[in-house]
Amino acid sequence: MPSPRDLRRRIKSVKNTSQITKAMQMVAASKMRKAQQGALAGRPYAALMNTVLAEVTANVGDFKHPLLEKHNTGKRAVILISTDRGLCGALNSNLMREAARLDKETTLFICAGRKGSQFVARTKRPLVAEFTYKDPPQFGEARAIAKFVQDLFTKGEVDRVDVLFTRFISTLNQKMELRPLLPVGELLAVEAGMNGDRKGAALERTGVEYLFEPSADGVLGTLLPHYVNYLVFQMLLEARASEHSARMVAMKNATDNAAQLIKDLTIEYNKMRQATITKELLEIASAQMATA
Amino acid sequence: MSTTFKLEIVTPEAVAYSEQVDMVVLPGTEGELGVLAGHEPLMTTIVPGELRITKDGEETAMAVGPGFAEITGEAVRILADMALRADEIDEAAAVEARQRAEQALAQKLSEEQVATVEASLQKALAQIEVKRRHRGQSSAHGQHSHQK
Questions:
Q1: ipTM
Q2: pLDDT of residue B137
Q3: Alpha-carbon torsion (A83, A85, A91, A92), positive or negative
Q4: Are A214 and B29 a contacting pair at CB < 8 A?
């Protein structure tokens, strides 16, 4: 049985904690709004680029590009986009659980975000590169990551590159996803399958021959790397939006729990105080009766 | 066959334009390129410059950044780094951006940085050019486009 003084102390410490979580919730909420806007605003661009590329690559005929080629080395690379800081609910543990499922021997990890690289180092998986991304993410950072994996891919060191990140769905819902990034053909097929018939139809249509200005090599040669860069950027945006949303919700829950805890503890404390007073009164009364 | 086609201009920040139009003139890599409905399927890269849209006899000018354009008979889709209407351009900001870029170019930079700075310089120049050319008529267009 705790003493009233212990209870008082406990209430105070819970209050302090709740002040911190409340402050973190506020910070996350304001960052969240900006990050969500960024992620949502970028989606039409990514979707349109996807449609355009799907149509064009399906209709270009004989065209070869290093990013479209298939390799056969039995190795794959995964870009793991995690957060730098904790206290954001199950976001990182979901990512790590999925990462742990990948084959230890044949998977190379490229990490963006400190939590991911800590995990990879701790579980002694091959970590080939570590990147950081700011808040909000900069396009240059995405380009650095994309360039690194493109080099890795074109040198033939890996068969494929996937990205493990958290897609932002809503403030209360973020979904961990493993998306193919390279070779580009595979990525397009996945996107087409996912996003309904407009793109699915585009992949099949082969009647139209596109003209290219200045040339097919010139246009696709710039479009393909740009596409990969931009996709990585969009994924960073999504990951940031998810992070802030998850943190906001986690901190809101913590604050709510703290409030409930304070309430319960205060009731218990008051009961105890009341009991002491009643006991003292009884003692006084009985002492009076004894002397009367 | 219809004489209008769908024009979509999308930037990483927003969908900048999405309407049925009569004609569009793009700043292509190989020079200006006018597109009417029923154009042959064409894929091209575009350079920073002026893009002119004709819709119901009215002409709107936009400054666009580097990007890509996909042209089919019934639609033109443009992916650009930037797309601003003449009246949305902040000329002072663009001039300042140009100066900053020019100063940055005067210093020693890595190849990657030079490419980035040059890209922003091009964008600033395109904005300034469009703004200057359309200063006279920008107020009328401004009201028109803000009502959307």
A1: 0.73
A2: 55
A3: positive
A4: yes
